[in-house]
Amino acid sequence: MRLLATVAAVLSLGSTALCAEKSNSTKPLTSRQILPANFKPPQTFKNVNLVHIINLEKSYPKESINVVIENTASTAQDEYFIPFTSSQMETIGGFEVKDRKDPDSGLFEVEAVEFDTESDTQFYRIRLPTPLAPKAQQTLGISFSYLSALEPLPKHVGQQESQYLVYTFSAYCPSTYVTLKQKTEVKFPSTNVPEYTIVPATAGESESPQKAGSKFTYGSFGELPAGAVEPVKVRYEFTKPVIHVSRLERDIEVSHWGGNIAFEDRFTLHNHAANLSKQFNRVEWASQQYYNPPSTAIKELKFPLRVGSTEPYFTDVIGNVSTSRFRSNKREANLEIKPRYPIFGGWNYPFRVGWNADLKKFLRKLKTGNGYVLNVPFLEGPKQPEGVSYEHIELRVILPEGAENVQYSTTVPLVSVEHSLHRTFMDTTGRTTLTLTAINIVDDFRDRELIVTYDYPLLAGFRKPLVIFTAVVGVFCAAWAIGGLDIGIHGKKK
Amino acid sequence: MADSGSITESFFKGSSGRNTRGLLRLTILSLIAAAAISSRLFSVIRFESIIHEFDPWFNFRATKYLVQHGFYDFWDWFDDRTWHPLGRVTGGTLYPGLMVTSGAIYHALRALTIPVDIRNICVLLAPGFSGLTAYATYLFTNEMSTSPSAGLLAAAFMGIAPGYISRSVAGSYDNEAIAIFLLVFTFFLWIKALKLGSAFWGALCALFYGYMVSAWGGYVFITNLIPLHVFVLVCMGRFSPRVYVSYCTWYALGTLASMQIPFVGFLPIRSSEHMSALGVFGLLQLVGFVEFVRAGVPSKQFATLLRGFVLVVFAIAFGGLVLLTVSGVIAPWTGRFYSLWDTGYAKIHIPIIASVSEHQPTAWPAFFFDLNMLIWLFPAGVYLCFQKLADEQVFVVVYAILASYFSGVMVRLMLTLTPIVCVSAALALSSLLDTYLTIKSPTEPTDSSADAVNGTTASSKKAEKAAKQDGLRSLSKPLVGIYTTFSKTSVVSALTAYLLIFVLHCTWVTSNAYSSPSVVLASRMPDGSQHIIDDYREAYQWLRQNTPENAKIMSWWDYGYQIGGMADRPTLVDNNTWNNTHIATVGKAMSSREEVSYPIMRQHEVDYVLVVFGGLLGYSGDDINKFLWMVRIAEGIWPDEVKERDFFTDRGEYRVDEGATETMKNSLMYKMSYYNYGALFPPGQAQDRVRGVRMPEKGPELNTVEEAFTSENWIIRIYKVKDLDNVGRDHASASSFAKGNKKKKTTKRRGPKVLRVE
Amino acid sequence: MHFLKGLVVSLLPFAALAAKKPAADKFQQFHTKALSSTPLKLDDTIYGQLTSAPRDYSVAVLLTALESRFGCQLCREFQPEWDLVSKSWTKGDKKGESRLIYGTLDFSEGKMTFQSLGLQTAPVLLLFRPTHGPHASADTAPLRYDFTSGAPPAEQIHGWIARHLPDGPHPEVHRPINWMRIIAVTTTLLGTVTFISVAWPYLLPIIQNRNLWAAISLISILLFTSGHMFNHIRKVPYVAGDGKGGVSYFAGGFSNQFGLETQIVAAMYGLLSFATISLALKVPRISDPKTQQVAVLIWGGVIFVMYSFLLSVFRIKNGGYPFWLPPFS
Questions:
Q1: How is B64-83 classified by DSSP, letter by letter?
Q2: Rounded mean pLDDT, B299-328
Q3: How far is C-alpha B513 from the chain's CA centre?
Q4: SS (H, E, C) chain C
Q5: Which residue ranges does the record assign to the STT3/PglB/AglB core domain (chain B) (predicted)?
Q6: CA distance to A173, B445, B579, B608, C26, per residue, from C113 (Å)
Q7: Where are the alpha helices (DSSP H) in B236-334?
Q8: Which residue in B48, B566, B679 is closest to A320 by CB distance?
Q9: Within 10 A of C23 (CB to CB), how many other CB atoms are there?
Q10: Are residues A119 and A218 in the same domain?
Q11: C257-303 pLDDT, tens per residue?
């Protein structure tokens, strides 16, 4: 326990990129920290005041917990634990903690810990950058989101009916510490919430929830012991598609010779909205297209690309999809794609989009030596009002042949990183490739950037021309030699 | 460039210019190849790099299979996703040449780590080979004539002649794509072998013949043309060791090579198509033997005796062949081949073959459309071949007559005609140009030279006499040349004009007629911009993504390959029409009442039914227009369950509107095409834009299938076959149960017929 | 005819009796008659008796119009086949186990029947299946064979009948061997052989004449490339009148043509290639400059005009064709 803590502390003291890489790569879910089976978080904190905000405006629940914690132990503490059920642990994503008092102090180091695979309770451990002195207080801003935690009810709706989603949570924010005062706010996309659990009035507090437009508030509640739960279920209207990308493969290819950077995103897209109760009816669909009412079908996806992106393409497994528009000018470069058919609940549509851009906008050469810095957006998926959730993202940065000493840094929580070689276009050794994997990401991370630094010696640039030249010369010589041979069967007449 | 070809000839006389000429020829040839390739790229530029209409989709799928699973798996590939539930021994029933070729190219490029998509190779294979074809034509023509301009002209013609472009535009990834090159090149090698009488060239010829066999069913054309050529030569008394060596080499090796293809197997010794080659082989042995003996034995009557002996043996052998054929040891002519001779045969006995549009006879506009001016230069060229009737010219004549007959009978065989047309047209044109494109003119005949000329003519009278029975009459007088520059310029300029028109024509035809993928339809928006109608792929993609992995799709056989290729779903029938009964079953299901169709569909585990309907868009190639063929083919198997007569009104019209016959209105195809169609229009206004008629007020009702998907412009409509209801009763009660729900009982719907399974 | 009349008279009591007595003897009557001459030549009355229910036998009747004034080509084509079917069937089944009677009712004798059946067209083949007895079939209405594709061969008719009378024997169709034809063929064959063998020395130079072969091959090529096979297969009309009395030589539409049209086209092709040949071979052999000049002009002009005309004709066939040459534009 102590030892681990010190190790982690040492790591965290290490500087910038390299360390960022480690701390990132040792983040959640894959390489978990195993604690002794009899682990119980020490009761060293208490939550003085806690506000739990659940945002259901998008197609995934986004939760944020603002809590004022106070050290009740006699010694300074730097480990704060948050419990989750193992099912939540599967789908939780983008777990981030920062200090509410000074938001720009950067993210805290967090990691998922597990002491017993059978147990239903798992923990996230937040490591405070500076140990909190006894009786001292600190305000944490914790934010995370669950993927595919929303269930349509009924499961099948008609082509034009409106859809209702169900979300279940606890009115008391799950905590391993005593909570003195707390409330839970739920933001709905609309005021149409036909069903919700009512928490009866108790001594001191009025009946929950209080409604204010599309915002419900449970609590505030008084002092509650650790691990207190009050299950609450809400069912609200959400007549929008529930866009879920089960897998996104994103390639970023850098070419120094061409001065070009090529992006390609391969989406495996599903719509998790309620399925059609009857078969698809084209007449109905066509007739309703004039005034377009809210629908659970995906009609169009909008990709706001970086300004200056060119030559976009939108294809699927059987070729180019002609129904896409690209608006590009000084200020914006919007790629608006329309799938071949409207994607209703339960339908799938894998596709790929790609575009090119000028390398200068993304690449900088370092003053010293032959190092380069590449700054690209980590994720450039569609920007939809209803939001998009990504279950698995695999990002490949393909650097030119001969690039070496590759380092990177990003604020997106990653699960694995690997370096490899990618051979194409008459490469001899192959191009240096950096592959980053992240899971359970939502489109809030759209604008997060990825910074890659690498060295590219001048000589490496000239390898390919030389190789090709020698090869061609070799072929000519061989042809000449063979042409010289006399393979006739006749005797020595000449 | 053709003119420049001959200009260089007249320009660089003498041995010094040989290298210059060679260089020029090389550049011209490469230019021709470039032109040939680029003129086939219209569709790629207009649309995208996509595989065209129907058969290519199967070849494409097979190629992908080959690339993924390797050669041996491909060789014994049993495809259970077609012809459900029968499946197809694909590896043994296709011509692998095409797939293997593109597979080899693919792997070669991959070895160079060039990340090329197999689709692009398949799309661009045909244009690439067209360049080679042009070169092969050049070689072939050079064997025919001494004038080098002929070869270049022929190559140019071959490069851009629409008759060949029609089957080799980018994306039409069909056997013909490489077959035509192989055809021409094999013929070139044959001529070479015949001229030199060398076993080496004969073996090469056999090699490429084998390649041809592996690539296209049309190899039978070679298999019969070469023996015919040899036979004619023997009849002309031109037997020589050269003929013997070249033919025997070719036949022995070529037959062995052809037997390596599983699909061909033992046909070369078992089927009538190949018997001519065998017979001529035997004949050559006999004649060779006779010649040998005669060389040894000088006596006259002995020779005649031998000749008699030869005739007798030949007659006996021929009789034996006939006997074997009759007794069935040798397979009789296959339907497709037989229908070339007995032209009425297909229509009666094999409606499937007759139903294919490219098996129709050729009207004259098609010839002119595909060959333009070549079509009238063609006979002239053939006539020129009679000048000095050497063995190779005989070949041209034989080829010309045979090919023009075939192309007259079947449109698609225009393909085999085109090369020889290009060659002989080039011969004619080049002789014209060589005559009229020379700088130096003959001197004006003065009196002395005049009577000298007369003298020569007088002296040449005897030669004329001699020439009477041998030479051509037009060659009787001695060659003088063209005197005035005016006549030269006039003729040459006229020819240039014709050639320019020819080029324009070819480009126009290619861009207008032969460059549409027919998977993607293009239409013009009111503002003139191009609007792409992509319904096929929309529906296929929907099938591929949103139906279970092996949901069986029933559709008319035209779309089988596309569904297999694009939607990747099992189909009942496809364009490889090897099983008439199965196709007839689908035809019956489409053309019968629901109560009859439903059991059929259940028995074949059909999950979805796909129909093509052009009524909304005015797309005339839809299923209602093909419907009669379904009926006919079904009638061929079930004459008294499906009757073509019942689909025509009493006045003998084929109608779909209010006046359609009951049988028509109750047929599954009709119902599926027009189901819910009226809902698009204000009541009573429903309009079929293909047939140009107004549809009845009340649309058809469907009980056993339900609409699952309809593409944006209604071109493709997909229906889901309803399952038996949960109580698991048989389909009869289930369908009547469905009707019971619908509160409407039509009396004639009762009492479902039991399916006759053949 | 008289005989028939008498027969009808003699039969009438039978028919009357037949109402109550099972019509076995009725069948016997007709069968015996059929044995002598089948198919029976019927008229309205006999037709009535023959096909009247109750019936324990089946009847196949061909309603036809053989007389030339009706101009029923199909009837005359089909008649021999029909006779062949009935003859071989009746011969094959003398004892009448299949209980099937063949009859032919010509329009001239059966006007009422035609009217009663409301028939506009001939021929019509009806098959009445027995109404009672062992092989009785549910629906009394006769089955109708429709002549969709020309006159069917006897075997096809036989198959059709056999299909609808599932039980009972189906005597095969026996085609009589046509001796005349065989003899004729053999004689002609022998004749030609002898003729050739006799006239060989005279034939040889003709056969070996290059011009002849050239002519033959050119003509055949011209035939084929001008769409003659299309005419042969599709049986197109030679010419057709346009709406207003005149004759239209060129069929509208890209993929159909008239007989005359193809001949015109062939002629054009022939002329064009002949002009080309003479430009290429004949003209440079003309020793006199003047004549040569004239010949060049003539042949060049011929090619030009003809080609221009050809293009204009093609523009008729194919609407949007953009290219043309003067003078015909």
A1: HHHHHHHHHHHHT--BTTST
A2: 80
A3: 16
A4: CHHHHHHHHHHHHHHHHHCCCCCHHHHHHHHHHHHHCCCEEECHHHHHHHHCCCCCCEEEEEEECCCHHHCCHHHHHHHHHHHHHHHHHHHHCCCCCCCEEEEEEECCCCHHHHHHHCCCCCCEEEEECCCCCCCCCCCCCCEEECCCCCCCCHHHHHHHHHHHCCCCCCCCCCCCCCHHHHHHHHHHHHHHHHHHHHHHHHHHHHHCCHHHHHHHHHHHHHHHHCCHHHHHHHCCCCCEECCCCCEECCCCCCCCCCHHHHHHHHHHHHHHHHHHHHHHHHHHHCCCHHHHHHHHHHHHHHHHHHHHHHHHHHHHHCCCCCCCCCCCC
A5: 553-602
A6: 97, 91, 45, 50, 21
A7: 241-258, 267-270, 275-296, 300-327
A8: B48
A9: 25
A10: yes
A11: 898 999 999 999 999 999 999 999 989 888 888 999 999 999 999 99
- B508-547 residues touching C, CB cutoff 8 A: 508, 512
CA–CA gap between residue B98 and residue B67 (Å, rounded): 13
Q: Give the DSSP H/E element, type plus range, for residue B226.
A: helix B219-235
Q: Do chains C and A touch (3 or more CB pairs under 8 A)?
A: no
Q: What is the CATH number of the domain that holds B679?
A: 3.40.50.12610
Asked if A317's CB is within 8 angstroms of B541's CB, the reply is yes
Q: Are residues C255 and C159 in the same domain?
A: no
Give A427→chain B minimum CA distance, Å.
Answer: 7
Task: Answer yes or no: is pLDDT of A186 > 90.
Answer: yes
- How many residues are given for chain B? 758
In a domain, A26, yes or no: no
Mean per-residue pLDDT over chain B, rounded: 85
| Whether the Cβ atoms of residue B610 and residue B598 lie closer than 8 Å to each other | no
**Cα(A470)–Cα(A476) distance, rounded to whole angstroms?**
10
Q: Which two tokens stand for residue B62?
A: 């097979």
| Chain B residues inside the 8 Å CB shell of A283 | 676, 679-680
CA distance B567 to B304: 70
ipTM over 0.85: no
Integer Cα distance of B48 and B155 in angstroms: 28
For residues A229 and A250, membership in a common domain is answered with: no
Q: Are A340 and B541 an interchain contact pair (Cβ–Cβ within 8 Å)?
A: yes
Specify the DSSP class assigned to residue A426: S
pLDDT at residue B743, rounded to an integer: 44
Range of the domain at B585: 534-742
* DSSP code per residue over B164-207: HHTTTSTT--STHHHHHHHHHHHHHHHHHHHHHT-HHHHHHHHH
Reported as a single tens digit per residue, the pLDDT across B694-704 is 888 888 888 88
**How many whole angstroms from its chain centre is CA B270?**
25
What is the count of structural domains for chain A?
Answer: 2
Q: What distance in Å separates the CA atoms of residue B85 and residue B605, rounded to the nearest whole number?
A: 8
Q: Please count the structural domains in chain B.
A: 1
pLDDT score for C295: 93
Distance separating alpha carbons of residues B601 and B702, to the nearest angstrom = 15
In a domain, C178, yes or no: no
Chain A residues in contact with B609 by the CB 8 A cut-off are none
Its domain, for residue A316, covers 243-272+300-338+346-464
The partner residue sitting opposite B401, judged by closest CB among C221, C227, C310, is C221
The one-letter amino acid code at B273 reads E
Q: Which residues of B touch C217 (CB under 8 A)?
A: 382, 397, 400-401
Joined tokens for residue A245: 């990308």
Hey, is the C-beta of B590 within 8 angstroms of any chain C C-beta? no
> Are the CB atoms for B396 and B420 separated by under 8 Å?
yes
CATH number for the domain that contains residue A208: 2.60.40.1730
E strand or H helix at C182: helix C179-207
Residues 219 to 278 of B: which have CB under 8 A from any A CB?
none
pTM of the prediction? 0.86
